[in-house]
Input
Amino acid sequence: MRYELFYWPGIQGRGEFVRLALEDAGASYDDVARRKGGINRMLATMGGRDKHPPFAPPFLKVGKLVIGQVAAILFYLGPRLKLAPRDEAGKLWLHQLQLTVTDFVKEIHDTHHPVGSGLYYEDQKPEARRYTENFLDERVQKYLGYFESVLRKSGGPYLAGRKVTYVDLSVFQLIEGLRYAFPRAMKDGETKISGLVAVRDRVAERSGVKTYLASPRRIAFNEMGIFRRYPELDL
Amino acid sequence: MRYELFYWPGIQGRGEFVRLALEDAGASYDDVARRKGGINRMLATMGGRDKHPPFAPPFLKVGKLVIGQVAAILFYLGPRLKLAPRDEAGKLWLHQLQLTVTDFVKEIHDTHHPVGSGLYYEDQKPEARRYTENFLDERVQKYLGYFESVLRKSGGPYLAGRKVTYVDLSVFQLIEGLRYAFPRAMKDGETKISGLVAVRDRVAERSGVKTYLASPRRIAFNEMGIFRRYPELDL
Output
C-alpha cells in the first residue's frame, strides 16, 4: 500500500510526526504537496472534493480513506507500520499518549502565536513573551515530567515498554524541537528528563530515522514551523 | 458494564462531552468525583496509582482500562453506546471530527485564558480581549462553517448522515456553550449555520438528553468552566 501524505511544504510542522513514523518503518509514501501541483491537490481535498474533507493538514490518503489529525493518522498507521501493538488496550494507551503530545504541540505553537494563528508573530510579541514565560515556568516541565513518569512506570526502554512505538518517535521530535527553539531553557530542563533524553538518543540511532535525518527529505527547523528560535522568548 | 467517569465536580467542562454520550444512551455510570472521597480517588489515579496514568481529567475507567482524553473516550464508547458505526472507516471519520471539536474547545477555553491556564482570568484581561476579538472574527466561523459543510455533504440529518452519533451531541454542547458565553456574537453568527442549529434542536429533543438536561446531574454553565460569560469579551 502506497501512502499519500498531505502537508504544507517548507516546514516540519505537525506533518513531521507522521513523516517520522513512515520513515522509521521504511514505508512507501508520497509527500504530495512538495511535488509540482501538490498544493492544489491538497487544497482541493480540503475544499470539499472529497465527501470527508479534513479540517486542516496534515492528512493521509490510503486508497479511498482520508484521515486527518496527526494522532488519528498515527493510530491508523501504528499497527500497520509495526509501531504500535495490535490489542485494543495497548492501542488506546498509545493513542492517549499521542493526544497528550498533540496538546503539548499546540501549547508550543502558541509561544509565538498566543493571540491568533492568522496574525504575524511581530504583531503579538508582548503577548508571546508573557505566554512563553508561563509556558517555560509551568507547562514544559508538566508535560515532559508526565512523559518521564510514564517511561519510568513502563519499565522501559521505551514509553510503552519493551518495544519502540510512534510515541517514542514523537518524543524524539519534541526534544529536538524544544532544543532548537529554547536552547537555554532546555539546557537547564533536561537534567530532570534523562530517561526521555535516552529515548531520543535511541530513536536517533534507528536506521530508518538516521537515513531520513541525513536526507534532503528532512526539512530544517525554521521560523515558519511549530518550533521557532526567537532568542527573546528563550528566557 | 458500569462505567466510572472522573472529572472535576462543579463544572461541565470537557467532561460534559462524555456525560452527554452516556446520558443519551442511558448508560449506567458513576460520576466519581462528585461523590464523597471521589476527588481523592481521581487524583490518586492521575498521580500514578495506575500503570497508565492519564495526564488530566476527564478519564473513564472500565474494568482495568483507564482511558483519558475526551476524543479517545468517545472513540471507545461510541460503538458500545450505539453512537458510532462499527466499521473502521466510519469510526475514523467520526473520530477525526471529534478531534476537531477538541481543537475548537481548546481555542474556546483560551478566550479567557490566552496567557496561561494556571493564571486567573483577571490577570490576563487585556490579552483575553485581544485574543477573543480575533477568535470571534476568524475562528468561530471557520470551525462552525466547517461542521456545517460536513453536515451538508453527509446528506443529513446528522453530521455523519442518517444516524445520530456522539459528534452531534458535541455539536449540541458547542452551540449551547457558545450561546451562553457569547450571546451577542452568536445571534449574528447563527444565521450561517442553520443546519447545525437544527442538529442542536434535534439533539435537545432526544429522550435521554432531555431527561438529563432537566435533572440535577446537568451542572449549569458558570465562570469556572470552558464557556464563560464575560460581557466584555462578547464583542
